[in-house]
Design a protein that fits this description.
mainly alpha; 8 helices; membrane; about 280 residues
């Protein structure tokens, strides 16, 4: 008498009568596609890419300040007064309008921090100016450019990723600023440049973080960056426009098109995940 074949089960050790690679029609019933996919709208994609463009614009602002100071097109007193005025207005708006509670205590604490930075920054500016004075100008510019690229790569754009490192990004920007400060005319010029570095790379990103997702903020940043570059170099302005179009328009278009082709599959063949449970 012929022995009846056992029913196939999803257990390798019980399927004696079946090949190891055998599966029946019920095996794919648990197949799922794109379980964790998130639909991204064109507006969200553009604004997300705009965060990169926004940070590039901040780097452009800082470099333009250095160019103006280096060429003597503007006095350092004018730069520090105007930049401090803009920073003060932005900070007050951030604290009074956006901070709901205990903003007076925060003002006092932050004012103490500013005073410490101003005093020590002014005292140490002669040292910072001569720190890289013996290095060639070409090496300084190459190092500063590399540091700004590091700053842009590791900057926190609001996306959780292993490559994000706010401390590395900030330190790279400040180090690049110190390198550029050594090429200015006087220690006071260096102090003004480093003060603007703190305003650009520390204060301005904090203020703009509250305006993330705003088309007006993104448009204003791009417009100002294009204008200030136009006052220095037409070629650099055209390059800035091309980079802006590539990052803000072309990259989101590619992302949305490739997202439609995404097809992640999940099923019973996936590795088991052990979750710790509290006893």
């Amino acid at each position: 008498m012929t022995q009846k074949q056992q029913t196939w089960k999803k257990n390798l050790y019980e399927n004696v009568d079946y090949p190891d690679n055998y599966t029946d029609k019920t095996f794919l019933e648990e197949l799922k596609k794109n379980v964790h996919i998130t639909e991204i709208s064109p507006r969200s994609a553009v604004l997300g890419a705009g965060l990169v463009t926004q940070e590039i614009s901040i780097v452009i602002f800082f470099v333009i300040i250095y160019v103006y100071l280096y060429n003597g097109w503007i006095e350092p007193e004018t730069v520090i007064v105007q930049s401090s005025l803009v920073a003060t207005i932005g900070y007050l708006l951030y604290r009074i309008v956006l901070t709901k509670k205990n903003y007076y205590e925060a003002l006092v604490k932050d004012l103490r921090t500013v005073l410490i930075f101003v005093v020590f920054g002014y005292i140490l500016s002669p040292v910072l100016k001569t720190l890289t004075d013996t290095i060639s100008t070409d090496t300084i510019y190459a190092t500063a450019s590399f540091m700004m690229i590091i700053h842009l790569i590791f900057f926190d754009y609001g996306v959780p990723a292993a490559i994000v490192s706010s401390s590395l990004s900030l330190n790279a920007a400040i180090f690049g600023s110190v390198c550029l400060a050594s090429r200015l005319a006087s220690p006071f010029h260096a102090f003004v440049l480093l003060t603007n570095a703190v305003e650009c790379f520390v204060l301005l990103p904090i203020l703009l973080s509250k305006g993330r997702g705003s088309v007006i903020v993104l448009t204003a940043m791009i417009a100002i960056a294009v204008y200030v570059l136009w006052t220095v170099s037409l070629i650099m302005m055209v390059l800035c426009v091309c980079i802006t179009l590539f990052v803000t328009v072309l990259c989101p278009v590619w992302f949305l098109r490739w997202q439609n082709c995404k097809e992640n599959i999940y099923g019973p063949w996936d590795e088991a995940i052990v979750h710790d449970t509290e006893m």
